[in-house]
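#struct-help
A.M.: can someone run this one for me? Single chain, 315 residues.
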Amino acid sequence: MSTSSTGTTGSPEPAVPLSHRVPDLGAMELLLAVARRGSLGAAARELGITQPAASSRIRAMETRLGVALVERSPRGSTLTPEGALVTDWARPVVEAAEAFDAGAQALRGRRDSRLRVAASMTIAEYLLPGWLVALRAERPGTAVSLHAGNSAGVAARVLGHEADIGFVEGLTVPEGLDSAVIAHDRLVVAVAPGHRWARRRAELPAVELAGTPLILRERGSGTRQVLDAALAEAGGLATPLLELASTTAVKAAAVSGAGPCVLSELALGAELASRQLVAVPVAGTGLRRALRAVWPTGTRPAGPARDLLSLTRRG
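D.P.: on it. Structure tokens below:
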């Protein structure tokens, strides 16, 4: 006869969800407004809430964080040293939320859209939201719809006049499209910390990379096109270990330890910084690529499409 134990001695306490520890987005927006306006009342007016509601929101934020953030006086409101530090931390969170909102609105594909954008997955995820935030500031009345897919699919939509402007990552531009280089990018080979390549001191030979089954994006993606070309002289790519249609899925498989992956440095920034993945230098390969805007040959982007193209070239 077998027995089992259900004792809880030594079991870890459940983790407190992040949403219970971090102030909500509205409170962060309010704190930034106080820093800009120098007054809780002025900040409340900017955000369209009452001063008592603003005071209550700041007090709740102070209680959650356990520090005083704002000093109130008849002359206005000033940030405490801790408040100034929290404001600096809150700013990129609010900016990221604005980018998220701009991208999400574009995905809704409203019928009154006046700008139809198609973008490859890497550009859609890591670059386009910031451009859309800037476009909204310059042309607040512009409605945008976004289609995200691989570079081949983006080109097809632009050629079929289903998009006013497209953004692709591949080495070549399909016939029938004109283009402009808007940025440059680099592909990175990355592995989980426990992989044998993570401990290499010398650069990985291109022939070893080519002969190793990798976790890759699907054919038709700009990432796959660049990698195919870079390893052609080393014998070409081995049969993929996994072939996945999204950057997020490729990263998750690599982080789990399934095998090496190859993705844009834009996509791998957070995982490399947190050491969930380790970059592996490769010898003798051209893993750099141009990111391009594309539109039908014989035309030029006009109206909001022209403005968006201009924004991509700033900074």
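A.M.: thanks! Residues 81-107 form the longest helix (27 residues).
D.P.: also worth noting: The domain at 100-176+297-312 is CATH 3.40.190.10 (D-Maltodextrin-Binding Protein; domain 2).
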